[in-house]
Design goal:
Layout: H1 2-8, H2 15-28, H3 32-48, H4 52-69, H5 77-87, H6 91-101
């Protein structure tokens, strides 16, 4: 969440480093739920930075982690995917994905 705070405060270059530190810490602690949460925040940062391809790559990694660890999503992954598709200009697919996620 620190990365998102940095983004809102107008520091565009430091949030991803903070998000990386959060994922590193969660991995060191061997805490899958914290890792999933940190990775999802990274997805949001990529969307805010208009980096849909990176957001989709990170989302795929989160989905893999969730499947391996049998974790439920707090937020629907379809919503994040819909946001990325919207940034890519795929309006029809984005709307369908957002509707499925909601």
């Amino acid at each position: 969440m620190g990365g998102q705070v940095e983004w809102v405060l107008g520091f565009p270059n430091t949030p991803l480093a903070s998000a990386g530190e959060a994922t590193d810490l969660a991995e060191q602690l061997h805490h899958p739920l914290s890792l999933e949460n940190a990775m999802l925040h990274k997805v949001v940062l990529h969307l805010e930075r208009h980096e849909p391809e990176l957001a989709l790559q990170e989302l795929a990694a989160v989905e893999l982690l969730a499947a391996e660890q049998r974790l439920a999503f707090i937020h629907s992954p379809e919503v994040f995917r819909g946001g990325a598709l919207l940034l890519q200009g795929a309006l029809r697919d984005a709307l369908a994905m957002l509707r499925a996620g909601l």
